[in-house]
Write a structure and sequence with these properties.
With 463 residues, this protein is α/β, with parallel strands linked by helices. The chain is built from 15 helices and 20 strands.
């Protein structure tokens, strides 16, 4: 598609949008209701109502276009971790999202959407770098490793397991590692597996880069894949310097796995033939290129079983001028989820903890979905959280403390004070986004206090 230029991309986008709107209006009771007041004929995209995760989940059975999909059966399916990567009803893939904005989302993917995601991943791998594509790695007999949250039906784990189940070569050449593993155990396991490529979150890649520089991790991968968090350019450079190989970034979400790809020239490019992004301000008005949006509205043109049309994704994006790589796909910068690595004191030194691991422990262990874990001292954490719908705040607090203590003990961290902060979780004053895990410096800024003096590695200082 890219070689045919912008006009062909725009034509494909319009045709796919037209087909999606017609399908949603015909087969989704929810969208039929939403579109009822609109003029006859095909509406303009900006005429359509904005959708939210909470609103769609509240009408899940009416939202989906296959009446065989019922929320009660879906929830029973995803309650079983042994079914990660298994097809629901023999034809759909299910995964869940974080509940940091409220209720967690459950997303259904049909075979056509999955095929599009796979094609975009392979066809739009950056050609301007020496990094091999996933399929080239497999073809050369290489090995791949993914470090992620594995104890649930999360998009990354489900997608990875689907490929392993579908392709025997993938099953033998890929391995998953839990982000919850103590760092020394993870380093030892990676050392034994010796992957050609490693995929993980930027904060985890930063921790591995430190282990590589310290000589405790002796791996020479050909490529590192980054996703799930915002990757700063300074962090990319630091990780690449430590490993001596390129870092390939990507932008995806549970709502759409392949939103934008890394061209290899320092920019992300929107897959605009399959994805529509509308950067908007806090009032829902369009934001011009070069200006950071308050949020972004996503329309996924690939998935028809669970249409996402003008869906408030919650990320902040900035549309950029044309990239020097010459791609006809729009360039953008993303300001998405970005939490801090925690560094807690332990006997004989300190332990660094990946923020997504900490957030996963709290959310999965307690059932609380809107919270903040704030480091307040070398051996001290404070937790802010919203009272769950059942009103049992004491029970939720007990589960949070138990989950955190179990996790910290496995990391070799003991005698940590965990205090309940009665204040509600507070959004970042600059980005307006909720950050779930904050280190000493960020925690002090959030509380309006002077940042305490600390000795910290450069990779612990976030934008």
């Amino acid at each position: 598609m890219s070689w045919r230029g912008r006009q062909a991309i725009e034509l494909a986008r319009r045709q796919r949008l037209s087909g999606l709107l017609a399908h949603a209006r015909t087969h989704s009771p929810w969208y039929r209701e939403c579109f009822a007041a609109l003029p006859a004929g095909e509406p303009q995209l900006e005429q359509l109502p904005v959708q939210t995760k909470a609103g769609l989940m509240a009408r899940f059975d009416d939202w989906v276009t296959d009446p065989a999909i019922r929320l009660a059966e879906v929830e029973r399916f995803i309650a079983d971790p042994a079914r990660v990567g298994e097809l629901f009803l023999g034809r759909y893939l299910l995964w869940t999202s974080s509940g940091s904005t409220g209720r967690p989302g459950i997303f259904v993917q049909d075979r056509d959407a999955l095929a599009v995601y796979d094609a975009l991943l392979s066809a739009r791998f950056p050609a301007g770098t020496t990094a091999p594509s996933p399929f080239a790695i497999l073809g050369r007999g290489g090995r791949m490793a993914m470090i992620a949250a594995l104890d649930g039906h999360f998009a990354g784990a489900v997608s990875w397991e689907r490929l392993r189940r579908s392709h025997p070569l993938m099953a033998s050449a890929t391995r998953s590692f839990s982000v919850l593993s103590p760092l020394p155990e993870l380093v030892a396991a990676l050392q034994q597996w010796r992957p050609t490529a490693i995929a993980s979150y930027p904060t985890m890649l930063m921790l591995l880069a430190h282990e590589r520089r310290a000589g405790r991790l002796q791996l020479d991968p050909q490529v590192l894949w980054s996703g799930g968090e915002t990757l700063a350019q300074a962090e990319r450079a630091e990780i690449e310097a430590a490993f001596g190989c390129p870092v390939i970034d990507g932008y995806g979400a549970s709502e759409c796995m392949q939103i934008a790809y890394d061209c290899g020239c320092g920019a992300l490019h929107l897959n605009s033939d399959w994805v529509i992004l509308e950067p908007v301000d806090e009032h829902g008005g369009p934001v011009p290129a070069g200006q950071e949006s308050a949020t972004v509205l996503l329309t996924n043109l690939a998935n028809r079983v669970q249409p996402l049309i003008r869906y408030d994704l919650g990320d902040s994006v900035t549309m950029l001028p044309p990239c020097r790589c010459g791609s006809p796909f729009p360039a953008l910068r993303v300001s998405g989820r970005r939490d801090d690595i925690l560094e807690l004191a332990c006997d004989g030194g300190s332990v660094s903890l990946a923020p997504l691991a900490v957030a996963t422990v709290v959310e999965e262990g307690s059932g609380v979905h809107r919270f903040q874990v704030i480091q307040t001292g070398p051996r001290a954490l404070a937790v802010r959280f919203e009272t769950p719908p059942d009103g049992d705040r004491a029970g939720a607090w007990a589960r949070i403390v138990s989950s955190l203590r179990t996790y910290l003990a496995r990391q070799g961290v003991h005698r940590v004070t965990i205090a309940q902060d009665p204040a509600p979780p507070r959004a970042d004053p600059v980005s307006g986004k909720l950050r779930e895990v904050l280190g000493l410096h960020a925690g002090a800024a959030l509380a309006g206090k002077a940042a305490p003096r600390r000795r910290a590695r450069r990779e612990n200082e976030k934008d």
